[in-house]
Amino acid sequence: xxxxxxxxxxxxxxxxxxxxxxxxxxxxxxxxxxxxxxxxxxxxxxxxxxxxxxxxxxxxxxxxxxxxxxxxxxxxxxxxxxxxxxxxxxxxxxxxxxxxxxxxxxxxxxxxxxxxxxxxxxxxxxxxxxxxxxxxxxxxxxxxxxxxxxxxxxxxxxxxxxxxxxxxxxxxxxxxxxxxxxxxxxxxxxxxxxxxxxxxxxxxxxxxxxxxxxxxxxxxxxxxxxxxxxxxxxxxxxxxxxxxxxxxxxxx
Length: 252
Description:
Blueprint: H1 6-21, E1 26-28, E2 35-41, H2 45-49, H3 51-57, E3 63-66, H4 83-91, E4 95-98, H5 111-128, E5 136-138, H6 149-155, E6 158-160, E7 170-172, E8 179-180, H7 188-201, E9 204-209, H8 223-235, E10 239-240, H9 243-249
Parallel strand pairs: 2-3, 2-9, 2-10, 3-4, 5-6, 8-9
Antiparallel strand pairs: 1-7
Helix pairs in contact: 7-8
């Protein structure tokens, strides 16, 4: 997805950096065993078409962060999932999470506009299937907003960033760390090291990605990399949970 440039980009980076250090929702994780969540942003069609069969092999459920305005749209790198595909994900037990409806970054939005974007996305998903419950948010482009964190804390159980690392001990529920499951940024060795750190800290590792394809976009992964991550988690007896499931397991 295209990045901001110039002064808006600098402002966004400053707000994002401040978000890391101003913790408004501290929470002590109380999970009994290490946990990993697999998350997919924007939900390209391939995340379902190629990703679900692999997840099914491990009886694993994932979290898919939807921006309603991107559904069934060509986004420059992939075709967005269709509306009926979102309903199918939900009915198969996967979690539907929330981006902003238009995929605008939180750093660009005042309180009123952010509230409108969230409401538009919730209404869109509710109209697809009234049983879809949207409890967790991921910052579009990974840009956390120090000014909007308190607003998001009132609307969602958690908000996820794209700053890598294991969540362990006391965490900021409105700035959860996540590690790229993206071929340009991690290989099988990096996945193994992340999972070993997870075991050592009894924490919560969140992977994020986008498309799943033999020739993925700069933001996606191959089926082989996804399969390795799931296999490595299974071999280490790590619980694979949705974001909502992991929060519940941690007592949040």
